Hints:
Largest sheet: 5 strands, mixed, barrel
Helix content: 25-40%
Number of strands: 20
Strand content: 15-25%
Shape: elongated
Oligomer: single chain
Number of helices: 23
Amino acid sequence: MSELDDQLQYFQTILQYLDTSGNLSLIKAQCEKYSKTKSLVFMFKLLIDPADLCEANANLGNLLLQDSVSVSNLFQQVVYKTVTVLELLPGEVTLSQVAVILRLTHLPTFHNVNTIHSASCLTRVFDLGSFCRLKGVVIGLSALTKYTLSTRYHCLDEDCEGFHGNHYIRVHSPGASETQTVRKDFKCAFCYCTLAEDKSRRTLSERLVAEVVPDNVISLLGHESERARLQALPVYIRDDLTRLVEIGEVYEIIGRTRKDIQEDRITISVEANNIKKVKMGISTRQLLQETPRNLLKLYRDRQKSPWSFVLTLAYLFGGDICPVGSYFHLKLVLLLSLMSRLDHKTKPLHILAVGGDVEMISRLLHFGLRFLDNTTSLTAGQSVTGHVTQDKYSSASYFVEGGVLHHAQNGLCYVGDVNILKKSAQQKLQSALSGGKVVTDVGSKFTGGLPHHMEQPLRARVWGYADPTPSKKTHQVLSDELFVTCKTGDTQPAILESFNIVCFSDCADSTSSEAVQAQTMEMTLVAAMLNDLTSSLPITAFDMIQFIKFASRLRPRFELEAESLIHSYYLSSRKSRSKAGDSTDVPVNADQTILSLAYSHAKLALRNEVTMNDALMAIYIYEQYLTARFGFSNLGIQPIPHVTTELLNYCLGPENDKRMEKFHASLLRYCSLTSSLEE
Length: 679
């Protein structure tokens, strides 16, 4: 009687839990959908929090973690009784036609016993036979394949009761292979004859295999100073969960280990029960507490000016790499790029730096890599958009291994010198930057028919550089016609067009260039003689990293006036420059680029709204880009690559505020004059 009492108590607890957790409403909503279609199996996916279930009934909660199949059967009986009593499904539905999948929302950690940190943990967790937890980044995906979710069997004897009705419904069990789900050795319970499958009633679903690298080694992927051999863990993902997975994203996976035997090879993998996307980082409150006091003091000191704080950050950025003030415009757009993100109005800012001192530019770009957690560098032998191979798990026709753009999702990808990339790599890079999508081509030899491609949004920022000096092998001007007053060397026009901002660090004023070179040489010599790595800057690189982490979590909203000003400038630029008869118009994506610049500037300025001042600075930066491209500025703007001591007040101080106010007046007048022109 004790077992019967326990079971009745389980039923009562499950019914109460379904009601209090909101799952009962989900069941009713799902039944309404099933009432409009004719189905063999009625599948119910329930969200279960083991902690809440343990509070309701400790024995039932422990049983869920240790023997989920038994608990699923208990939930199945309760759900079946509920839908029949409430008449939510047709009366002829049998228990075998109701299938329940329990999706765990959380998993308690038992001193990391059930947490997978590496491939060596799989065997230990498999021996436990319980749920496990894995957090990591997806580095590859197999093709979507079909598997049998459910099917119907019947007896071969027409006079037997097993020939009619839905007595034998076979539903896929978590961790089971296709051969275990669909078999030919089932026997009839009435006459013990062999059962036959009714293939017309077979229901198919989708599955894929993802390769996941645990989160404790994610940081090793993008840092050249640290090398490690990483072994990816195979994870089987099924049904609606397959639509949630993208290469390069970080997920927390709850599942069970499974063992597959293929010829002479035994593979232990993870069968996903539930997955959810996670964001790396710490809380905003903790970041604010760890934000350096000297940076907060600088922020308070610059409150009188809406632009001075951000400009001062750019002035001091990378001061240990090159003298403060040098490469000022490049540093400013790099900081804005670090703040950018993919949104419905904004997108990641991709920066191409062009200058004669490529070694210094490369060091500066490498310095920027340390400000984001997820960074990758394109090196020889690596793929830009991933490549396709035969599926090593024998579950699909092919497997897609992610490229550097996949691995840098929500982070930063450094591609180096774009001119030394292979032509195919340049084309893939240009296509990804222009279209905002990472496209991996799958050839016909893998599909068995027409070739197709796999794509996902590009959420990574891309940085690169180019030498403006053409090689001796180049006998024709490739892209000087795109940028009238600036040299771009051997860089292809399509590559230049694909980057949001092309920043030229060579100054037309030879005096400024010589001053920067002299300061750089002096800085290098002093550092070599003193051999002192202590920074003398008021804001160190560590301080800047903490600030960037905090500012990047802000989500400012656009003011209507700021957005309207950006749209007016965009339309006015296209109209006026088309009127002037230039062969190249303002880029079509300029509007979104300026919105992204304004959004990033507001985050750096620690504002909750993107104001007119942010829009004004974004337009000012983009007008410098157009000046380099067309050779003139409709607003009288001249690019300032470096800020020397003589220009300090002009670029950062009160004089800069007056200059920006005059620029604002000129901008409004410019938009008003061009509003009547036809595009």
